[in-house]
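Lecture 7 notes: from sequence to structure.
We start with the chain below.
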Amino acid sequence: MKKLLSILILVSLAMAFAQIKFGMNMRVRSELQNLNSTDADTQIYDKKADLRFRPFVDYNINDNLIVKAVFEVGDIQFGTNPSADLGTDGINTETKNLYLSIIPNEDHKITIGLLPYQDPHGFIFNADVAGILWNGRFNKYNVDLGWFAPYDLDEVNINENTYSYGTTFFALGLTYDLNEKVTLGLSNYLVFTREEYNIPVLTVNRDEVSIFVAPRVIGNYGKIKFDAQFVVNNRYYDYDVIDGDPATFSQPHDPDKTGTGFSLKSSFEVDSKLSLRANFLYRGCQTMYENFETYAPFYDTGLEIINQTPDGIAERNPMDFDLYQELGVALPSVFVDYKLKDNLTLTGGLGVFMFDQNYGKVSDAMYQGTEFDLKAKITMYESLDIIPYMAFFLPDVGYARVMDLSNQDHPEDMIMKLGTTLKYCF
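Predicted structure tokens for the same chain:
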């Protein structure tokens, strides 16, 4: 009887574990970048290494219910407190994703929990966020409808009225397969934010509505592929006195704003070994003649230095300085990928960084500089990718006019990055 009971327990455990899938992603990076100059007598280099580990588990309860959990240990930068200095028990573990997928049939899925979400190019929104997402397919149509809560700052009751504070994000994505070669898309996003406007004596709410409309076209003509997304952003503001005398409130100048952005990513397959890629980013300014301000983007330009999502650590990125985030940017880039062996691909890249117009503060300087990249991707043991790279950004005089070169945190004559990234997945 004991043997039979043991066998039943083992069979039950085996059946349970048959529904569970484990996996992991791991990344280790090292990088060297100059901070102030390439002058051998005065140069300072920033040397960093970090790692990130993401284990995940998928539990298929049945064909209709799936639970997924993704955890993240990192990013752990070597030698830093409280993550990885000598003797430190690092405080570096977090829940990245945790959600339930309900699948009524093969054409519909509802996802609830903390999940990754992004627009098609990661141009407007690309982040982990808590919410609910429905994906549906109807013949040639695909529909995504989501409600997300990026920030919940609780409710306040004032004068027998309840006010909710924080940010709510609504998303509606549509695609239509026009034919075998062309797919049309339209993404719509609504961001509602309410916060307290700090003013003495009175209690004032500041409400902001940001609307994104993003038409998209995808083309697949065999060797030639492209994906283009155009974005229009409208922002509206309202101030509401909820406690105190409204007659004593002077509303600040906060006009409605409109701005635009554009992203193009394309490729041309010359043959089985050689392919060409061309990308173009246009991002309108935030504060000058128009206003284009995305919400939680994480856009990949394909470059190593002028990029929000490079393989490298990116401590010094021209696009991340406050001034560059406010001014409009135009960034064309081209890449050449050559497959030398089945497990070895070489990539060369060139990008030109410009302002979208002549701003008075930079004295007729639209052109900011040019980046050159060399990169390799080596796949070993089927699961381990090794990516060595070098990147050089050659700034123009306009870049010097924008930057405060008396501050040694800003590079003067050239930004150089050398590094290696290891990625392991199973």
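Points to note: The first helix runs from residue 2 to 17. Residues 39 and 413 are 9 Å apart (CA to CA).
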